[in-house]
Amino acid sequence: MANKSVIRQVGEHVGETVVIGSWLNNKRSSGKIQFLQLRDGTGYIQGVVVKSEVSEEVWDKAKSLTQESSMYVTGVIREEPRSQSGYEMTVTDIEIIHLTEDYPITPKEHGVDFLMDHRHLWLRSPKQRAVMVVRAEIIRAIQEFFNTNGFTKMDPPILTPTSAEGTTNLFHTKYFDEDAYLTQSGQLYMEAAAMALGKVYSFGPTFRLKNRKLVAT
Prior knowledge:
Helices cover 24% and strands 34% of the residues. It is an alpha+beta fold and 217 residues long. The chain has a 5-stranded mixed β-barrel. A 3-stranded antiparallel β-sheet has the order 8-10-9, with no helix packed on it. The longest helix is centred in the middle third of the chain and has 23 residues, at 126-148. The protein is elongated.
């Protein structure tokens, strides 16, 4: 019976048959071989489908896959030095969950405005995923530094009744029947927290309204 795995951990299963739940990032074909670029949120791996080694049904399933289609892929993990991850999967079976139609973000170039309108999908691209991974690691390292040096993390309120810095660039909203604004700074709250807890730190978020656009900082 095949083991379930995620792409980040395939190195633990070299020579074994595994099942990976994944999405199709891209694919290419060279006649009797199909190369599936798979992703699962933890990383990327290439799945190789050889026509002479799979059933006609599996081959046709691989041909039908569209960008961002979801599936369970079964195959044998092997080392591949030319691969970015160092591993490849020789595919033996595919269970399609959903075939995606008209996925808007294709491998071609897109303008920033278009990509921001599809931000929830843009996050799936390799570069945006990498940015989020790096960001998470930076936050982890900063929090580790503060935590090991006796700081206490505080979360200042996001909604405030007035400006914290004497400016008119506030984003207005309603809190029940009262006027409220997205905070520009957690400083005043952190000053009060420092008097109670000593060394404190905050990760926000805070917000600025610039040229009528909301900017989170």
